[in-house]
Amino acid sequence: MTPRTSKFARTRLFVVATLAAASTLTACVNSAQPQAELSGSPTVSASATATPSPTPTAAYKPADAEGKAENVPIPVLPEAAKANSKEGVEAFARYWFQALSYAYETGDTEHWSPKTASQCVFCVSLKNGLDSGYSKGRWLVGGKMTTPSIRALYKPEAPSQQVEIQTIQDRIDYFEADGSISQPPTPPSNSATVMIAVFESGSWKVSDLGLIR
Fold first, then answer.
1. Contact (CB, 8 A) for 75 and 91
2. Domains of the chain, first to last
3. Closest Cα partner for 62 from 105, 30, 102?
4. Which residues of 51-144 form beta strands (DSSP E)?
5. CB within 8 A of 198, min separation 6: which ones?
6. Tens of pLDDT along 155-182?
7. Strands 203-211 and 181-186, how do they pair?
8. What residues contact 103, with CB distance under 8 A and at least 6 apart?
9. How far apart are CA 172 and CA 16, in angstroms?
10. What pTM value is reported for the model?
11. DSSP string covering 29-58
12. Distance (Å, whole) CA 68 – CA 138
């Protein structure tokens, strides 16, 4: 890994290459009035079944040189990721990188940090770098992450589990609050990463992270 000159870039272990919650509008429901009584006929009362209108979701807008991302979908921890199993830790690893990708797009680490143990030194550095990259009105463009390959070396009785992950991250551009470029962009990457995860109190946490050399 080539050292970067900025504090934020230096915190990235690998140019780790997705999501502010999608806001919704309240649906309106129209109720039909009962039909009027017909003269000389038996009383008839009917009402149309109210059909709720679909609830529109605000459109996702990625960050660009004009401003921050908007309405980035929040990653959801799947049920599978709550199991202490090979499939469980693999599902967790996928979610963890989705939450990190969301943090790159929004600066919000609220969903990622609780799944990261404090002893993961590099993870703490990542968080500090993200906090800096979004402080004082700054923002990032890009940095979206995908994990096309995840393989756990699961050992049922082991205190921690190792997961090998292919991690792809988009290029990152850095902007100051006034829209000026704060530093040269970080190029896209395709990295082989190893995650160490522990299962405690019914959930997984990342205790360490590094490159596979």
1. no
2. 7-21+74-211 (3.10.450)
3. 105
4. 139-142
5. 117, 159, 160, 161, 204, 205, 207
6. 999 999 999 999 999 999 999 999 999 9
7. unpaired
8. 109, 111, 112, 130
9. 10
10. 0.75
11. ---PPPPPPPTTS------PPP-PPP--BP
12. 9
